TrEMBL record:
Protein task: PPIases accelerate the folding of proteins. It catalyzes the cis-trans isomerization of proline imidic peptide bonds in oligopeptides.
The keyword Ribosomal protein appears for this protein: no
Catalytically driven reaction(s): [protein]-peptidylproline (omega=180) = [protein]-peptidylproline (omega=0)
Name assigned to this protein: peptidylprolyl isomerase
C-alpha cells in the first residue's frame, strides 16, 4: 500500500511539472546538423522577430536593425523562455518559441507588450562566440528529429521515475509479504 501511495505521489508531483512546462513551446522550423550546440554560459548571437500571440502585432525585431542580439545563454540576461528555448541549438538553426507569461514578462507590461502576454519569437542562431561558423549549413528534414517540447521531456522523465517507483514498490511488497515462507536460518 505504501508503494502504491508513493507511486501516486510521484505521478502527482510530475503532473505539476508538466503544467508549468507548457509555458514554453519550441518548434524547430529549420533543423540543422552540427557538432557543437548551444550550452548554458555560451555567448550567442540571435536574429529574431517578436510578436504578440493574441493579435500577431510585432513588438520588436533584430532583423529591422540589421544586427543580431548578443547575450550569455542561461545567465538570466533575457526572459526565461529564451534562456531555455535556445539551448541545444545549432548555428543556422531556426526555431519558433511560443512563450507564456511565466517564461516571459509575467504580469507586468513592458513597452508595447501588455501584462500577461504570450509571446511568439521567430529566432535564428547566427553564432556562438569561440565556435567557428560552419562553411556550409547542413539542414535536415524536420521529420528526422521532431522538436521535443519541455512537456514531452517531463513526460518521459515521469514515465521513467514511475517505472522505478513501481519496481521499488514491488520489491517492498515482496520483502514484506507475510505469506511467503522464509527459511534463511
Amino acid at each position: 500500500m505504501k508503494g502504491f501511495l508513493l507511486s501516486l505521489s510521484l505521478l502527482a508531483s510530475a503532473a505539476v511539472g508538466v503544467v508549468a512546462s507548457e509555458d514554453l513551446q519550441i518548434d524547430v522550423t529549420l533543423p540543422v546538423e552540427c557538432d557543437r550546440k548551444t550550452n548554458k554560459g555560451d555567448k550567442i548571437s540571435v536574429h529574431y522577430s517578436g510578436t504578440l500571440k493574441s493579435n500577431g502585432q510585432k513588438f520588436d525585431a533584430s532583423y529591422d536593425r540589421g544586427t543580431p542580439f548578443q547575450f550569455q545563454l542561461g545567465a538570466g540576461m533575457v526572459i526565461k523562455g529564451w534562456d531555455e528555448g535556445l539551448l541545444d541549438m545549432c548555428i543556422g538553426e531556426k526555431r519558433t518559441l511560443t512563450i507564456g507569461p511565466k517564461y516571459g514578462y509575467g504580469e507586468r507590461a513592458v513597452g508595447p507588450i501588455p501584462a500577461g502576454s504570450t509571446l511568439v519569437f521567430e529566432t535564428e542562431l547566427m553564432g556562438i562566440d569561440g565556435v567557428p561558423k560552419p562553411e556550409s549549413i547542413v539542414t535536415k528534414s524536420a521529420t528526422d528529429s521532431p522538436a521535443e517540447t519541455p512537456a514531452q521531456k517531463v513526460a518521459e522523465k515521469v514515465a521513467s521515475v514511475a517505472k522505478e517507483a513501481v519496481k521499488a514498490a514491488e520489491t517492498f511488497v515482496a520483502d514484506t509479504d507475510d505469506t511467503q515462507e522464509h527459511n534463511e536460518l
